[in-house]
Design goal:
22% of the residues lie in helices and 36% in strands. The radius of gyration is 25 Å and the shape is globular. A hairpin with a 7-residue loop joins β1 (49-55) and β2. It is built from 7 helices and 22 strands. By secondary structure, it is an alpha+beta fold. The longest helix has 44 residues, at 2-45.
């Protein structure tokens, strides 16, 4: 019996290093795959990233620099509003050292994004837009730009990190800016990265790098979904008022194309934390009032209902509910998932016009 136990112990001891080596090889293989993927994303993204120089007057202090991302082959470029501000002259330098003058089109100074346009002699490489609503905490992201500014980083560089929080609210009161739906990550960026692209692991544009908190080494990016919503009117050169604290991103009608301005007809608030715990839900919009004769009333929505989803899109809070409703064209049919007294119901709602 002792010999049997001895043989068994020797057999197990021989197996353990083997398992350990296999696991190590597997982990190394995965790391090398991630490394190769990152290399390809950087290689493809750097030519789509530009250096933006702004001239505000005369003298050294009257010049500024930041970054931008090309979003179309005909020369549309997204950057931060604070990169160009009230510049008298703007120029863009590409990764091949080509320099072109840029025209500032529409912008939103409060929420810090801006659309530029260059007249390029040939089609430009550009970022495909991703879906910033689909990213999750823990996802890997890559930030690109010119962190050292115009004199150091003539060619774009990249840094890698992970998303640490979504829908982050960051007031920058001293600069009169507000980021109410920011992607927070631990991706290292610096002042010259402002306006540069944030991409996912498919190399798709999911955000515009906008702000940093140096003491915490946190980075904040504007989600591309917020900008894509108003891209048509930015191209028209419209100046957007933007939204403040406690407003949802589509709060102002003038921010939206006239063809999109759906109306539901409820007043809602955040779901109380205790109710979330009891109902086992993480978000939603709690209905405090249903307006008489509204689309919500006609569809059967009731006081104290919690709106969870619209067309399979999870609703985070009342601000997100309003944003989502306004993104629909009037008289569109939408499928709502609603929790009523602990039960989940499906309701078809025909939205109205605001």
């Amino acid at each position: 019996m002792k010999n049997l136990f001895l043989l068994l112990a020797i057999f197990i001891s021989l197996l353990i290093p083997s398992f350990g080596q296999t696991s190590a090889k597997w982990n190394l293989s995965k790391m090398l795959q991630l490394q190769e993927k990152n290399r390809k994303i950087a290689e493809q993204s750097i030519p789509k990233t530009v250096l933006v120089r702004s001239l505000f007057g005369t003298g050294r202090d009257a010049q500024g620099a930041g970054s931008g991302g090309i979003i179309s082959p005909d020369g549309y470029i997204l950057t931060c509003s604070h990169v160009v501000g009230s510049a008298k002259f703007i120029e863009v330098e590409f990764s091949d050292r080509t320099v072109l003058p840029a025209k500032q089109l529409g912008y939103n100074e409060r929420n810090d994004y801006c659309l530029l346009k260059v007249e390029a002699p040939k089609p430009l490489p550009f970022f495909e837009m991703g879906n910033s609503d689909e990213i999750q905490v823990g996802d890997w992201v890559m930030a690109l730009g010119h962190p050292g500014g115009a004199n150091i980083d003539r060619k774009a560089s990249c840094s890698l990190g992970r998303v640490t929080e979504l829908h982050f609210k960051l007031p920058a009161q001293s600069f009169q800016r507000y980021y109410g739906n920011a992607i927070k990550s631990d991706t290292p960026i610096f002042s010259g990265n402002s306006g540069g692209p944030l991409v996912d692991m498919d190399g798709k544009l999911i955000g515009i790098n906008a702000a940093i908190l140096i003491q915490n080494e946190d980075s904040f990016s504007i989600p591309i979904g917020e900008v894509r919503e108003v891209l048509p009117i930015l191209k028209e050169g419209k100046v957007l008022t933007g939204y403040r604290m406690n407003e949802y991103p589509s709060a102002l009608v003038k921010r939206l194309p006239s063809s999109r301005n759906g109306f539901l007809g409820v007043r809602s608030e955040s779901v109380p934390e205790q109710m979330k715990s009891v109902l086992e839900i993480s978000g939603g919009a709690y209905i405090r009032e249903v307006l008489e004769g509204s689309p919500a009333s006609e569809a059967g929505l009731q006081l104290h209902d919690v709106i969870l989803q619209i067309d399979a899109k999870a609703i985070r809070d009342p601000y997100h509910l309003s944003e989502t409703i306004r993104s629909y064209k009037p008289f569109t049919q939408a499928l709502f998932k609603v929790m009523r007294q602990g039960e989940v119901l499906s309701l078809q709602v025909r939205l109205g016009r605001q």
